Automatic annotation (TrEMBL):
Gene: ccsB
Segments passing through the bilayer: 12-30, 69-87, 107-125, 132-153, 165-194, 224-248, 263-282, 289-311
Organism of this sequence: Nocardioides panacisoli
Keywords (A to Z) from UniProt: Cytochrome c-type biogenesis, Membrane, Transmembrane, Transmembrane helix
Protein name: C-type cytochrome biogenesis protein CcsB
Keyword Flavoprotein (UniProt): no
Chain ranges of the Cytochrome c assembly protein domain: 103-309
């Protein structure tokens, strides 16, 4: 296949992945909707001095079977979408001349990062029982894919000289894996805060209904968030404090340059280090830990998006965010 054919395949695979992600999202939304009772089927139960509260009856066997089928269908569609997503990355790499890893600019990094979010969700699906996270993960990935295709797309171009290094694969692979895991942990932390707030507003003796009633307990959400963050932190440490400085020294003869990307990557490391340290020493759990985790994911995505748009011209990493023709003045070529 020619380079143009590979690039066309990549673009078509992105479109196919977006369509299948959308179908998977619809399947999971239908799964949750099938477990909700029609209006007027509630039953009233006494809840002590608080009076009466409406509680939906348990789903029937038919509703449960329909929900299980839709859940399996949604998972299968997610796997198919992830395969198409991966094909789009392979196509981008093969379209380069010479062939290269598909991490040469912000569009390609966004494709790879969103793909890793999906892959990590699928890998941890059974181990951490993440079926409840499906609509949130699919909605996030679909939104990121649409934004990348509409606003970040760039034609395939050769890697700049500074990026043409084996350290690109090592450093960026670790950063992308950590980004995917931190994003999943951030989703769990956000759901924790939403469920905690919803529970605090319930009348005494009442129970949650709908989506929040079917996500894990607050303790379960807290454990999921902690386990994912505990995995991602050493990977991020390897990317930011080990491979990054080594590559910087090789490219620019300095381990640390106070570049906006480097500074914000270190800020992200400090926030997550504080999150894990507070849990291990001060026993921080629940609300405080969730808020700190959301601060961490905010700094992570600001480093990825905000720094690129608002400080790119002052960053030595600007060559990774723009086409070579409009690279900022701090691009070091060799």
């Amino acid at each position: 296949m020619s380079n143009a054919a590979w690039e066309t395949l990549s673009n078509q695979a992105v479109g196919a992945a977006g369509i299948v992600y959308f179908l998977a999202l619809l399947a999971h939304l239908a799964e949750w909707a099938s477990l909700r009772q029609p209006k007027g089927t509630e039953k009233r139960v006494a809840v002590g001095s608080a009076g009466l509260a409406e509680v939906a009856p348990a789903p029937t066997t038919r509703e449960t079977e329909r929900a299980e089928f839709l859940g399996r269908l949604g998972f299968l569609l997610t796997v198919i979408a992830a395969v198409a997503h991966a094909v789009s990355l392979v196509g981008r790499g093969m379209a380069g001349d010479p062939n290269r890893v598909p991490w040469g600019n912000m569009y390609e990094f966004t494709l790879t990062g969103s793909c890793l979010v999906t892959v990590m969700y699928l890998v941890l699906y059974r181990r951490l029982r993440l079926s409840w996270m499906a609509p949130l993960v699919l909605g996030f990935v679909l939104t990121v894919l649409m934004a990348a295709r509409l606003w970040l797309y760039e034609p395939v171009a050769p890697l700049t000289e500074a990026l043409n290094s084996y350290w690109l694969m090592i450093h960026v692979t670790a950063a992308i894996i950590a980004t995917g895991a931190f994003t999943l942990g951030g989703i769990a932390s956000a759901v924790y805060l939403v469920k905690m707030r919803a529970q605090s507003r319930l009348p005494e003796g009442a129970e949650l209904t709908g989506f929040l009633a079917r996500v894990p307990t607050l303790d379960g959400l807290d454990r999921v968030a902690y386990r994912v963050h505990a995995f991602a932190f050493p990977v991020w440490t390897f990317a930011v404090l080990i491979t990054g400085p080594i590559w910087a020294h090789q490219a620019w003869s300095r381990y640390w340059n106070w570049d906006p990307k480097e500074v914000w990557a270190f800020i992200t490391w400090v926030v997550y280090a504080g999150y894990l340290h507070a849990r291990a020493t001060a026993g921080w759990k629940g609300r405080n830990a969730a808020l700190l985790a959301l601060l961490g994911v905010a700094t992570l995505w600001w480093n990825f998006i905000g720094v690129n748009f608002f400080a790119g011209n002052n960053s030595q990493h600007s060559y990774a965010d723009r086409p070579p023709a409009v690279v900022g003045p701090y691009d070091v070529r060799g």
